[in-house]
Structure formats: structure tokens, C-alpha cells
Amino acid sequence: MKTFETGAPQKIQLTVYYESQCPDSKDFIVNELQPALTLLHNYLILKLIPFGKAKSIDNTYFECQHGPTECTGNMVQSCALHVMKESGANDRKMLDYVVCEMKTEAGTTRNLWCVKKARVNENLVTSCLSSRMGTELLLRNEDLTKLVSPTFIPTITIDGIFDQGVQDSGIQDLIGTLCSYREDMPPCVQHYNLIGTE
């Protein structure tokens, strides 16, 4: 396992590029990402990029793969994640919020139920949505997504690098894929010992 000079384990940076109404994104976030972060939260830095295969028009409007409501959902999630990050929320709290959105699609209708449930400052999220900030956050997500040029959504990168083999295995078995990067992480050792006894 790679370590910093202090001896602390080096964290894996996992970035997930997804869309608010994409069935594959929902399946991955709920069934792969959430269990992986629960197990490996001390060893991961999670970055969530809601944008996917959308595209901007004149730096003002967006067209999304699953229609206008997906664009709304992407913006609601972008604003909420921004507010959460600014307030110091941890990765697990941010992912719990996104899981709520993916399961309910509340944000796709500008319903802030998941924002309220996550105890995010609703006024700040509303302000973001009704100002240029929401658009700017989506434009930033577009730029970040273009750097990867995903052909499939969701797409993952590990430590900022896209690898098709990692993508293919990570979508099906994210815990196993992440553990292959740091095999001696205690949660990975425990996870595989439990699997071996089943």
C-alpha cells in the first residue's frame, strides 16, 4: 500500500461521472458505489460529477440525454453538492444525498425533498438554482466530463486516470476493483476473508 511520509495510507481518488435520470447511473450509485464507500470511506476521496452525455448551448442552456428533467436534476445535484462541500460535509453525507436523488428523482422536478432530508441549506440551493451559479457549476462539470470523453455513463476514474479495464470491472465490482489498488487495506482483507468463508 502506498503511504505518505507520515505513514498514513494514501487515499484513492474516485471520480464518478453520471446523469440524474440514467438507469445505469442509478444502479451503479445505489448498488456499487454506496456499499464501496461504506466499506472503504477511510481510504477514498469521492468526487461526484453530475453531467454525463449532456451538452451546453451558448454557455446558457443544456440538452441532456434523458431530456430536460435530467438537466434540472443535474443542476439540483450540482448546487446541493456545492453547498454541502462548502459547508464541510463528508463524502458519505454527500453520497447519501445523491442516493436519495437517484432513487426518488425528486430534483428532476426541482423538488428539494432530498435536499431537506440531507439537511442541506435549502435557501443556498435555491439561490444557486435561480442564479448563474447553477449554470456555472454545470459548465464546470461539462469541462471535467469532456476531459474523460466518456462513451458510457456512468464512468469512473481512479486517481484521475481513465482505464477501460478498470471501468469495466469497477461498474460490476467496485469494491473488488478498488481493493486491487490497495490490497492490504484492512477493510479489503476483512471483506475477502468474509467472502472466503461463505
How would you describe this structure to a colleague?
The strands form 2 sheets. A 3-stranded mixed β-sheet has the order 2-1-5, sandwiched between helices. The protein has a two-stranded antiparallel sheet with strand order 3-4. With 198 residues, it is α+β, with helices and mostly antiparallel strands. The longest helix is centred in the middle third of the chain and has 19 residues, at 68-86. It is built from 9 helices and 5 strands; from the N terminus they run βαβββαααααβααα. It is globular. α1 (23-40) packs antiparallel against α3 (91-104) and α7 (164-172) packs across α8. It has helices spanning 23-40, 68-86, 91-104, 113-117, 122-129, 132-148, 164-172, 174-181, 186-197, and strands at residues 12-18, 44-50, 55-57, 61-63, 155-158. β3 (55-57) and β4 (61-63) form a beta hairpin. GO terms for molecular function: oxidoreductase activity, acting on a sulfur group of donors, disulfide as acceptor. Belongs to the GILT family. This is Gamma-interferon-inducible lysosomal thiol reductase. InterPro entries: Interferon-induced_GILT (IPR004911). It holds the Pfam family GILT.
